[in-house]
Task: structure prediction
Amino acid sequence: MTHRLAAAVSRMTLLRMIRGLPDPIPAEAVRVLGVDDFALRRGHTYGTVLIDITTGRPIDVLPERSADCLAAWLSRHPGVEVVCRDRAGCYAEGAARGAPAAIQVADRWHIWRNLGDAVERTVANHRARLHAATPVTAPAGSSEHATRAEPPPRVGAPAIRHGRLAERTRQRHVAIHALLAQGHSLRSIAQELQLGRNTVRRFARATSPEELLVNTGTGRRPKLLDEYARYLHQRWDEGCTDAAQLWQELRELGYRGSYSSVRDHVRPLRSGIPPESPPAPPKVRQVVGWIMRNPANLDADDQRRLEAILAACPELAAVRGHVRDFAHMMKHRRGTRLEKWMAAVEADDLPDLHSFITGLRRDLDAATAGPTPPHSPGPAEGHANRIKTTKRQMYGRAKPDLLRKRILLAD
Result:
């Protein structure tokens, strides 16, 4: 811009001028404060952005993510009545110390996500029951042909993973549970093994290392042709034994695989031996999505597959019921029913949901207030995302003081 204006000003001079601009002063004291963190250096250094929830504008940027820093700011700025924050313990402590009379409101999105994590662990622990949802319908477009009956798929445990990551996971699991048996706390284990506390907590919750290896690389990878196997068998029984013609018919139905795959699939049929192609069960994340989603937004096939899983696994049926009750409570902002909901969950044998409840009880007041008042930390989350874009625009020059000015002075 200065080049086009023919102004002999260097970029360093402009940056010094930006740093020298005064901070904007809010027109009135902040009553509803939004607090969220952002990464200065991801995984190492974090800052804190403070938002006026009423106006949706940032009012300050703190150089660190700590209880002391937030408490000191609140002490210098009295009058805050509501603090909307995520579920970080440092922000809870800082708000309690700096504004003890303020109401703390936990972010509803974070609470829902924590519940989703607990549901995912529960589904992973019962993944052997997911075979109950094996699809039995033919692909679209093949309804004009009668489907050929096939034997039910064999239900087996997922394949055992090998490799350096799997071995390291098993070694860490043994080491962490050995220290837990000796009476060590999660903090001391994290310090001794040089691991993050969240990592140690995740290993401590897992009853076996295989639970930690379930989300990647386990089980059989479905093939593109599996969905069309029934149609191929039916056409073969009708007398169509030309692999090229079968491949063309499948392409009209939406198949995107190669001719060689179809040829190899039908080769055993020429000798009278049907190929083994057991349908793949749904993935853990897919089932979690069915449970967490609004039932009205599920299509008929997903609903049918979910009901088959729930009929085969009473534990997951109970989880689905608790998730629906929790969603109803949050949608209608009835946080006062949280204690009753937690008691109902604790009455069932659902260890992973019990762990979620333990976290809620540590932050019970803010968790209860989360679904109740109209205030939400959503604007703070939005500004945290905008800060990521601002950092990328600065091409490595996003030092805290300059970044702070750009955040506060942005329109």
Confidence is low (pLDDT under 50) at residues 136-158, 216-222.
